[in-house]
Structures
1.
Amino acid sequence: MMILLSLTLVSCGGKPKPPEPPPVIVQAPDYKPIGEGMKVHSYALIGVAVIIAVALISRGKNN
């Protein structure tokens, strides 16, 4: 009887397989915020260039 009881408590199968890790999804980086920042800076530089050009033109007309 003890042998049957001990056999029921012992597993005959091998070690259980570890769970598989979830699949890794490789996504492209999001460059949109960088592009938006560069666009704002380029608009600012164009604005500064226009202001300087207007100032130089108006300075030349006053003479």
Note: The radius of gyration is 37 Å.
2.
Amino acid sequence: CTYQFAVPPYPFWYLQLPSQPLTLFLKDVGREDSDEGIRKGFDATHDKKLKSFHLWKPSSELSDSATYYCAVSGTVTRSDRGAEQKPRGVCAEQRRHLWSRLSDPN
């Protein structure tokens, strides 16, 4: 996943299983072992100089089959309690988010 933001970016990975809504999978706003992606053995490397946030896993499994989306935002949405939330209208706000579909090589 690469992006072109000039402001400090906050990249996210979302996961979508068949017939299911998008769910937050992994984020880079400080590493948290509670991220679903970390618990499933995934990790992501955020290179701010190269403007990339690549998702990887040493060995994939059949249960990892899904569509993975990368979203990058110039701001992080937080509630009063400080918990991260999925940005509103993720798909509708394409001008504020750069999407990269991992499962589609084109």
Note: The longest strand covers residues 10-16.
3.
Amino acid sequence: PLQLLYSTYVCSAACSSIEVEEVSRGRVYTCLTPPFEELFDWVEEHTLTLLLEPWTLLTTRDTDTFQKVAVREETRQVESEQYRELQTRYEEAVHRLEQHAVAQACRPPPPPLEVPRSPAMWSAVPERYRGYRLGSLLGHRMELQHFTSFLQDNTASIHLTCWLDIEHYRRIPHKDKAQREDKSRLIKDKYLNRKYFFGPDSPATRQQQDEVMSQSLL
């Protein structure tokens, strides 16, 4: 299943490539045998970086709209099934990160990950919105709904669903082999195809697609 995730999203030939940097792809590839739980940490951080731009555009657009219309505060207690699922995943992810932090304290820290930063992009975000992260959205229903709609309007929602599916796969216990295989198969069918990763609008480079293809044939 871990090799499938690598071939689906990370390597150059993947049809659903999320354009991971070559250094990060190399780190993930070297850790495939034997695989371990933190294998896709670099990929996950890169995916979150991809979501930064649409989130920045959304907050900027909302700020402009807010300045043009009258503001009326309204509180609604609406908890959809999707929101409850996201809330559960977020809480489990936080718990897992806390456990991971304790485990990391017992071994040498990994080398720092070189992730490209975009300070100019953050400078375009209003000051009051710069503290928002995906985790922060889960505590604000209306912001989460706006962000999801914005991603859908800009054909970027697949990046968010890809991240959520990987997160779901990661939190499945290794002993539940059947469930992990089902989730792995779902990820492959949903993203490793010509509509996303191997399609004409794929976020992956040709090299990344080739690497994913070579891994899927192992």
Note: The chain has one domain: 2-70+82-216.
